[in-house]
Amino acid sequence: MAVYLDNNATTALDEKVLEAMLPYMGQITGNPSSVHRFGRLQKDAIEQARELVARLAGARAEQVIFTSGGTESNNLLLNGFNRKNKAARIAVSAIEHMSLLEPAQHLLPAADIIPVDENGLVKLAGLEQVMTEQTSLLSVMIANNETGVVQNLAPLINFAAERDCYFHTDASQAAGKIALDFVDSGVHAMTISAHKLYGPVGVDALILDKRLPLSKIQFGGSQEKNLRAGTENVPAIVGFGRAAELALTSLQTTASHVRSLRDALEKGLKEFSTISIFAEPAERLPNTVQFAIEGFDGETMLMQLDRKAIAVSSGSACTSGKTEPSHVLKAMKLADALANSAIRVSFGKNNTMSDVEKLLAALHDIIEINQHSSVMMAATV
Amino acid sequence: MAVYLDNNATTALDEKVLEAMLPYMGQITGNPSSVHRFGRLQKDAIEQARELVARLAGARAEQVIFTSGGTESNNLLLNGFNRKNKAARIAVSAIEHMSLLEPAQHLLPAADIIPVDENGLVKLAGLEQVMTEQTSLLSVMIANNETGVVQNLAPLINFAAERDCYFHTDASQAAGKIALDFVDSGVHAMTISAHKLYGPVGVDALILDKRLPLSKIQFGGSQEKNLRAGTENVPAIVGFGRAAELALTSLQTTASHVRSLRDALEKGLKEFSTISIFAEPAERLPNTVQFAIEGFDGETMLMQLDRKAIAVSSGSACTSGKTEPSHVLKAMKLADALANSAIRVSFGKNNTMSDVEKLLAALHDIIEINQHSSVMMAATV
User: Fold this and answer.
1) Is A41 within 8 Å of chain B by CB?
2) H or E element: which one contains A154?
3) Residue A381: what pLDDT?
4) Cα B293 to Cα B296: distance, rounded to the nearest angstrom
5) pLDDT above 90 coverage of chain B, percent
6) Which single residue of A57, A173, A286, B141 has CA 20 to 30 Å from B312?
């Protein structure tokens, strides 16, 4: 059986989530915008899910805007803010997901990039460097998808608040792994994705403090408080609600479980002489480790592991077609050779200690065969 | 058991479609952008579905761009065309879905509205009226969601072609009800929605001739030929493929079935003395009838039918919160009193002749009670 160690890219749908979705995927249908009983049933289901997603985020139900995915949420935030605030400058950190960095590059007239330190952390000095009089929205993620690094957001949020600047955080990787507190944290917007926490693909929430002025960017209906036109994806929204409920209940259990796997893997990795674990001194998500084995190309290693039926990532899933180092590792100023060797392992609740052992054994084999064939090649030259 | 007669708003998921989706909603997961075996499996599933959707549209697989819904497709088309062609004017017909009319109003610097005749038909005279030297994209739907009126597109497409003008058609209501032929028709873009043809919500296809210049409007990844960033909704895409396959196979059977129900309903309706059937002289979809019973408000009638467990629509589902006449009926210059009485019945393959009988009986009761209470009221004054 193949081993899936790429849970930061997407997670398997929880069977309890599927169970919650199925009643909305059968003979009973209805458009939530219809006023008859079929429509009202769908609308009620959306509102129940909204409550559950809000609870996971530490937000109020009325702050939850459902969209079709994290990429849409992040585009809505940046582009929608820009539509309302033409003169504003926006600043996003250098290690954000491409769904924030690309809209910043392509849609906005004025976006700045906040640098990070060698561990991928945003520091006050970095913020001060890019802050202008016009900067009115900052976006810094809670946890990074590649390295798993968790930011210390509180001082950054304070910094923004003192300057009347709105603050958005992409919690796509943090949700379900660490506790969230939208209201108390003082952020004005937060992105949470269902398919990263054992929920369905095709649904996401942009949690929004209504003080943050936002225009919709997709027109044609007044759904989602007039911020996102389009027929609501009710089964996916219902599934998101259930996944959020389960994630909140099992937050500590899941975190402990994946942490024990991650720690065991790191212990095993350190027995290889030429290992580097990225951002090791920083606080990291309990499930994620990104590392390099010196002299081994990450993409090649990924494919060799794939032949042994073990799935990992070499960088962010969305850009893994590229051969250049990921923008995250570049921003951390890692040497190219090290960055190109990057392998990311992201555990999920379905993984077991046996998966860790299989991965370590596979890495051992690959390293040994390679060293052997190097010797062989040297001998035949 | 409640009777659902609102299939133009959304349809029940076919159980064969659900069956096709379930393998992608379980323990086997993967992000299609991941290069390992889990990712490749998801990518293959998308490509198979693309082939099936293309076949329904009479298009080639490489012309299919998957999005999150019809509203997104229509926004992508107008906004994406505008981003590439800043100087262009765009013209859309007055009876388009709001997902075309609203972006035309809010996102575009230059959009014109093509008038329709009293049956809701776009005529060459109407096109000539709005056409300017700068007009480079026309959008006219195949079939209208409210009245069911089917356009005679061929002369309009020729008119556009002679002027080097691109042509888009929204086939959301036509797909699965009448045959489509993207390539041979000469249109450059077409919108098809899965949830209108017994497929899942949350997925749609913008069929695109690559000669039509389009920019993406949602950034953050190179998915869907770099025209739509965001993790693909694989189960929904797979379901769309299966729904398209089933729709193509059963096109004639379904059309005959719903036509027989619609014809029986119209025959019954005509026994009421004060009935008007909208756009009756025009070609209409086999499943749709929109009518008015003089003196009866449409919204009130809808609610009275709902109390009798029969679901119909009074206008387009997306705007049914409003009390003013629908923009479609306004464009047809229907008298307000008649437009406000509008009831839309849209049959689906799961409906039966018994549903027609129940609706006719219910209408009869409502009219009778109402006439009785009018008499009563007159007597007590």
Assistant:
1) no
2) helix A153-162
3) 42
4) 6
5) 88
6) B141
Residue-wise pLDDT for B194-248, tens only, equals 999 999 999 999 999 999 999 999 999 999 999 999 999 999 999 999 999 999 9
What is the arithmetic mean of pLDDT over A72-99? 96
Using an 8 Å Cβ cutoff, are A153 and A140 in contact?
Answer: yes
DSSP A166-220: EEEEE-TTTTTTS---HHHHT-SEEEEEGGGTTS-SS-EEEEE-TTS----SS-S
Alpha-carbon distance A114 to nearest alpha carbon in chain B (angstroms): 18
* Residue given tokens 């004639």 in the structure block: B252
In this structure, the dihedral spanned by the alpha carbons of residues A63, A67, A69 and A71, taken in order and rounded to 10 degrees, is -80
Q: Which of B105, B231, B313 sits opposite A195 (nearest CB)?
A: B231
Helix axes B353-380, B251-269, angle to 10 degrees: 30
Q: Which amino acid is at A69?
A: G
Q: Has residue A67 got a pLDDT over 50?
A: yes
Short-list A349, A339, A338, CA closest to A319: A339
The answer to whether B350 faces chain A, any CB pair under 8 Å, is: yes
Q: How much is the pLDDT for A380?
A: 43
The shortest C-alpha distance from A31 to chain B (Å) reads 6
Cα A65 to chain center, whole Å?
Answer: 18
Identify the bridge partners of residue B161 per DSSP, sorted by sequence position: none
Q: What are phi and psi of A76, to 5 degrees?
A: -60, -45
CA torsion sign for B288, B293, B294, B300 is negative
pLDDT of residue A1: 82
Contact A28, A41 (CB under 8 A): yes
Answer positive or negative: Cα dihedral of A138, A141, A146, A149.
positive
Pairing of strands A275-277, A288-293: antiparallel
Q: Which residues contact A43 (CB under 8 A, 6 or more apart)?
A: A32
Distance from CA of B42 to the nearest CA of A (A): 12
- β-strands A166-170, A135-139 pairing: parallel
Number of residues assigned to chain A: 381
Question: The whole model's pTM is what?
Answer: 0.95
A226 inside 8 A of chain B by CB:
no
The residue written with tokens 């009643």 in the block is A23
Token digits of residue B250: 């059963």
Give residue-wise pLDDT tens across range B90-122.
999 999 999 999 999 988 888 999 999 999 999
- Chain A positions in Cβ-Cβ contact with residue B25 (cut-off 8 Å): 13, 18, 21, 200
